[in-house]
Design brief:
Elements: E1 5-10, H1 14-17, E2 22-27
Antiparallel strand pairs: 1-2
């Protein structure tokens, strides 16, 4: 199974989540 398309990740550290530490990326085949 191929996992393509946009993804978003974030930090699970509560102090980091408060500062919007998130990023996104695109998976292309």
């Amino acid at each position: 199974r191929d996992f393509t398309g946009p993804y978003v990740a974030h930090c699970h550290n509560l102090a980091h989540e408060d500062h919007a530490m998130m990023f996104g990326w695109e998976i292309t085949p």
